[in-house]
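Q: Two folds, back to back.
A: First:
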Amino acid sequence: MGKKVVVKIAELAKTHQISLRELSRRSDVRHAALSELSNGKRESINFSHIERIAEALNISDIREIIDLVDEKEIITN
């Protein structure tokens, strides 16, 4: 099995106690895009979205937003 990049949108929203809609408003990233990232339904990642999310949540370490995991971990979780 290979590796997969996971965007931790749901975790971020929970940690920062905001909804995806509020994160969308703060980051100027479409709610639909955040939802797709959160649910793992988006195949590509727009790095400008990652930058805007980081700025909106005052995050300086990209590892808080994205993670690289074995695909096997995703299947078992």
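A: Second:
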Amino acid sequence: MVPDDEGGGLMRADLLFDPVDGLDEALAAVDAFDAALVGGLLRPQPGQAAGVVELADAVAGTPLAARVAEAADKTVAGAAGEDHFVALAAARAALLGSVHDALTARVTEAVGRPVAEEAAPGGAGGADHAANLLAAARSWLSDLARAGWQGIDHELVGGAAPVVSAMLPDPALRRQAMLLDGFAAELAASCPGATLERIPVRRWADLWSRALLLTLPGATGTPVAETATGRLLPLGIDVQEHATAVQAQVHSVFEPADGGAPRLVRAAASAPKPDTVVGAGLWQLLRPHLSLLTAVGEGRAMDLDAMPVTAEGDLIWDDAHARMGEPADSLATARVALPTAAAAATAPLDRHPARIAVPVLLEGYEAEQDDDGVAFRIAGHRLPVDTDRIPAAGPLTAEAVAASGACIALLRWDAGEFHAQPLAVERTVRKKAVAVHAGAWAGGTTDKAGVRAEKAATGAVDALRERAGRLLRN
């Protein structure tokens, strides 16, 4: 991504900074409904009722119009049932999906990259015997909507526990169970709601609406999967860490062996963790699940043979279908292969602006650092750099980003503007170009700081594995 008058991967950098028609209005309708959820929908006050009506008005010209209008009327009257809450959640998801699509179209136009065609949805997920569990989940989520975030207490939030416990043994319901479990844990940590000084309004509304829609029959259909045979060229690793879990997602370009067009794909590994394992120690938990991490750390490609991959571009990783390949520099990959790599279409329920993460190569910018953080000056515009997303599990730092001249990043959208999340940068050290990768320690390292961090985490990781082994033996 460089200014269009200097050539390179980005054809129209200015498009990232131009307003998108209708975006503010769609988000305003979502915000109005989210505000109504704060106080609850059992007996909505005039301000809350207006927020529900505004959501219904925003989808008046869509196939959802009649059902959402009915749901809004029932909610305003304090007589809404589960079906009405589902309709409101669907309207909210549709609006955020339209925002996602508009922003993604803008990015696609800016980078000039092809987009793969959407595949037909998979078959319905879940078995008939699980219908009662999904209904129980909807009932709990409906009770949450009636109480509102200010009305939550431990008794209400605790109602999710038996539902989650019954869902977890069923692999077809594990996705819903994990979402409900995490959502309930957040709410429990915030009880009682009446005493909260600050409420994560958008986040809880996102979790509520997504959880509700995932309880519908067929919502978690089996992904349509094909197989991938060819060369995988890693671009970088996005690490997402929480107190009790960590995930590493590797963004790559896949070049089919049959000479087909290259495409963007992802491979991810996740693992539970104790809160004492931080920094480079995270890789010890993740390496056993994804050999690709070693390839990234060593700067190598991987050769895939019939590796399963979904229509959304997610590799269903199996080491039996992969072997280590030749050296492959990620910045070279970004310069040569990335501009022509097609992006996979996004599944309908995944269309949310927070999920936008488009790999791009940034060059020809001026890096600047001030009290507002690091930013890249591109085509006369300021592109903020989200250095808070740089993991502590690698050598990449905000200072390295500020001193860089090229950057592989994920283009994200938050708080009304695009941001760049660095995965790797190129900087000049003693007149020589040096690359610094966020995932450089993924496969192990001789770096002194990385070695110290891994050594400090070894005891905690060994203890975790020993406890897990004892539980399995018992």
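Q: And?
A: The chain has a mean pLDDT of 89.
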